[in-house]
Amino acid sequence: NTPSITMDSEGYLHVLVGTHGRPFQYVRSLVANEAGGGWTDPVLAGEGLGQTYIGFVCDGGGTLHTVFRLWRSGEPYPNSSHATLAYQRKRPGQPWEEPRILIVAPFSEYSVFYHRLTIDRRGRLFLSYDYWSTHWFYRNDHYGSRRTLMMSPDGGESWKPARTDEL
Q1: Residue 20: its pLDDT value, please?
Q2: Which residue range(s) make up the domain with 139?
Q3: Which of 5, 122, 146, 151 could form a disulfide with 162 if both were Cys (CB 3.0 to 4.6 A apart)?
Q4: Is residue 109 left, alpha or beta, with left meaning phi > 0 and alpha meaning psi from -120 to 50?
Q5: pLDDT surpasses 70 at 136
Q6: 103-116: pLDDT as tens digits
Q7: Could you write out the three-class secondary structure of the chain?
Q8: Of 133, 115, 134, 135, nearest to 125 (Cα)?
Q9: In the chain, how many domains are there?
Q10: Can you give the pTM of this predicted structure?
Q11: Would you tell me how many other CB atoms lie within 10 Å of the CB of residue 159?
């Protein structure tokens, strides 16, 4: 898993790092516009989370937004584990909020979303993803592009499919 770095409007660097399927660790630079000025002690983004594949941005108000694959057990696959695409944020001066599930994989076992998170000049979040399952019949039945674009016009409060007139 590769680390991810972003900068807030005051110049502080924010970093999320993690190992495959473990909770992300978060650190912030102690000095604005300076990576060599020291870092905060690492803080987990959540206890016991199976987080992988970081998408990470900071909005104009300093809120951190991340989207990632989150492994879960239980419903809707009570006898197996399954992947979800989850969203989490950290408002300035606050701890990380609990993850919110955006997408549940249509099959249990291994899958990946090949996702990317970005933010536009108006502060709207855009999430692009393409679901891939280890089940061959799903890949064969859905040949070609399956890329989907979702957006949040309100800082992660709500998510919906993006429309052409909103781009």
Answers
A1: 82
A2: 4-166
A3: 151
A4: left
A5: no
A6: 988 777 788 888 99
A7: CCCEEEECCCCCEEEEECCCCCCCEEEEEEECCEEEEEECCCEECCCCCEEEEEEEEECCCCCEEEEEEEEEEECCEEEEEEEEEEEEEECCCCCCCCCEEEEECCCCCCEECCCEEEECCCCCEEEEECCEECCHHHHHHCCCCCCEEEEECCCCCCCEECCHHHC
A8: 115
A9: 1
A10: 0.91
A11: 18
Quick one: tokens of 143? 């040949």
Residues 126, 5: Cα–Cα separation, whole Å: 18
Pair of tokens at residue 91: 């408002």
**Residues 13-47: tens digit of each pLDDT:** 999 998 788 899 999 999 999 999 999 999 999 99
Mean pLDDT, rounded, for 86-95: 97
